[in-house]
Specification:
This protein has four helices and no strands. The chain is mainly α. The chain has one domain. Helix 2 packs parallel to helix 4 and helix 3 packs antiparallel against helix 4. The longest helix is centred in the middle third of the chain and has 21 residues. The N and C termini lie far apart (28 Å).
Length: 87
């Protein structure tokens, strides 16, 4: 797959996680979803990671904010770890 294709897939998953958590009272299991985003981000070339770092950081911050009441502690830690890696 091309780099642009991988970037598009990554952005779609990350953005949909943000939207999924927006104003939610409860969530279904998200471990696989968050794991896929982490894996996909880490597999992007470093240059692309740098290019999207600011935007991805904002998405992660929003996901943590929107999921404040519903994210299980383990999932919150995974997102916080990923956020720390891109900060």
């Amino acid at each position: 797959m091309s780099t642009s294709t991988e970037l598009f897939k990554f952005a779609a998953k990350a953005g949909s996680l943000e939207g999924y958590l927006f104003q939610r009272d409860k969530v279904e299991p998200l471990a696989d979803w968050i794991g896929n985003i982490d894996r996909m981000y880490c597999s992007l070339p470093r240059s692309l990671q740098q290019d999207i770092k600011t935007e991805f950081r904002e998405v992660l911050q929003k996901a943590l904010k929107y999921g404040d009441k519903v994210l299980e502690q383990e999932l919150r830690r995974k997102l916080e770890k990923l956020l720390a890696e891109v900060s």
